[in-house]
Amino acid sequence: MKANSSDRPAIRPLPVMDRARQVTDALADYVEEARLKAGDRLPAERELMAALVVGRSTIREAIRHFQALGVIETRKGSGTYLLKPVSRATIHMPLSFDTVHLRDVLLQTLEVRRGIECEAGMVAARRRTEKDLVVIEEKLDAMERVHLEKGTSGPEDLAFHLAVYDATHNPLFRQLLEQMRETFERFWEHPFDRQDFARRSFPFHRTLFNAIAAGDPEAARAETLKILDIVEEDIKEMSK
């Protein structure tokens, strides 16, 4: 018996969001291929409409998506500007926290950091090259120099950890850290207005490097845990 064509499911047009996703991907590709940097201006809305052959609402949906991720901003009367590099391969993790309870937020983010950073240290110990070790030690030397001069070394500490992440040769580690970094920094720069927060963890960055240089994943994990355990102790002690 021949099926009645009226019984077949209807083929519906693609929803606007699907087109917006295509526009989002196209914009991400353009930013990467054009090598745009933070502060560079994106093409105007009309130019995007003509180039991508889509309507204004689709362009605006894609722009809102990027705005929600914090990678672009629209300035009235000026245009749309890139806040940070983006590519289709980038993993976006817009994060939100209950900013009223700082202690809880810090402990929650620490749980995430512990999992990622321990694994990154272990992978780096297995995969690092001699070139990676040179870069990591350069960042570590800079961190130690600034720390001894000023008693703190936030940017240099971050550069050290990024170098460790790069030594994993897995780009997802750096992408994850970059996506979380700006949100984390709002809480981790000087928690509880204490310049000495986590200062006791400073020596263990050198022992972490030594473990990675020795190609010892378990030692790298152990040294990373020492750093993060001190951070946890300081959160609990300083928030009393």
From TrEMBL:
Q: Which InterPro entries match?
A: GntR_C, TF_FadR/GntR_C, Tscrpt_reg_HTH_GntR, WH-like_DNA-bd_sf, WH_DNA-bd_sf
Tell whether Transcription regulation is among the UniProt keywords: yes
Question: Sorted alphabetically, which Gene3D superfamilies does this protein's record hold?
Answer: GntR ligand-binding domain-like, Winged helix-like DNA-binding domain superfamily/Winged helix DNA-binding domain
User: Where in the sequence is the signal peptide annotated?
Assistant: none
Question: Which terms are listed as keywords in the entry?
Answer: DNA-binding, Transcription, Transcription regulation
Highest rank taxon of the organism: Bacteria
Q: Give all residue intervals belonging to the HTH gntR-type domain.
A: 17-85
Matching entries from CDD domains are given as:
WHTH_GntR (cd07377)
What protein am I looking at? DNA-binding FadR family transcriptional regulator
Origin species: Rhizobium esperanzae
